[in-house]
Amino acid sequence: MTYFEVLKQVENELKNITEDYSFDSWCLFSEVFQMNKTQYVCNKNEKADEKLTNKLFELAEERKKGEPLQYLIGKWNFLDNEFYVGKGVLIPRADTECLVEEVAKYIENNDVKVIYDLCSGSGCVGISLAKMFENITVYLVEISEEAINYLEKNVVLNDVKNVRIINGDIFDGCEKMGLTSCDVIVSNPPYIRSDEIQTLQKEVRCEPQLALDGGKDGLVFYRELKTWFDKIENCKFIAMECAEDQAEDIKEIFNEYKQISYVYDLNKIKRDVCVEKRR
């Protein structure tokens, strides 16, 4: 089979699985054959390696079964940085880039030396901030051993020296974890309501439930984040990602603070809640 024929066959296999079948097919094709689009155009009528072709078809079968594209590729892009991903870690999403950009705006206008990235997952949020601001120390806090494995690999992949990985449960409290002094907290915590997990898309259900389940009302982590924000006196700013219908509820949780703002995602939905302590 030629490269052209191989790619077309994968597209036909995925056509009934996802509206993004062309994108998914190309991502798998380019990963397996290590070929960019210019190389493909120049070589599309050449015979494709049989072993690699079979590997690609196997990945396409996994994709048809609902395995996330990102897991099959093993890496994903976030703010122009690459991050290892796979079973056991939440997939970085474009909407979360808005969270990082908002925290970066705050850092640029304030004296920030230490950031806590709570529920860090792959580390895409904290590591991205560490790369942007090399003079700031970022603590990456994560409970999952599987996610910690990806955190460690992503720290190396992105060559960041100003991060510290903490394997711990934020519900143990900041004092028990020895994390009692920071300037900024950022978090993309689990926020799906427990009874809604099984209604999610099949692909999303492939992601770790630990990274999705936000308790009965989806807000249990925000209440704990409020406790951290309250107790760490020198912490002046917290930014949190949330579901599209949670922003007002989170505002109510933090209602004693008057400087509360929202960040809208790419679909103009309230995706992040930011709280600043009065000076």
Instruction: Tell me the quaternary state.
Output: single chain
| Low-confidence parts | none
Query: What is the C-alpha radius of gyration, as a whole number of Å?
Result: 21 Å
Total helical segments: 11
Major sheet characteristics: 7 strands, mixed
Distance between the termini: 67 Å
What percent of residues adopt helix (DSSP H or I)?
25-40%
Short description:
Helix 6 runs parallel beside helix 7.
Task: Describe this protein's structure.
By secondary structure, the protein is α/β, with parallel strands linked by helices. It is 39% helix and 16% strand. The protein has helices spanning 3-14, 21-33, 37-43, 50-64, 69-73, 96-108, 124-132, 145-157, 202-205, 220-231, 247-253; strands at residues 75-78, 81-84, 114-118, 137-142, 163-167, 184-187, 237-241, 259-264, 270-276. The strands form two sheets. A seven-stranded mixed sheet has the order 5-4-3-6-7-9-8, with helices on both faces. A two-stranded antiparallel sheet has the order 1-2. A hairpin with a 2-residue loop joins strand 1 (75-78) and strand 2 (81-84). The chain starts with a helix and ends with a strand.
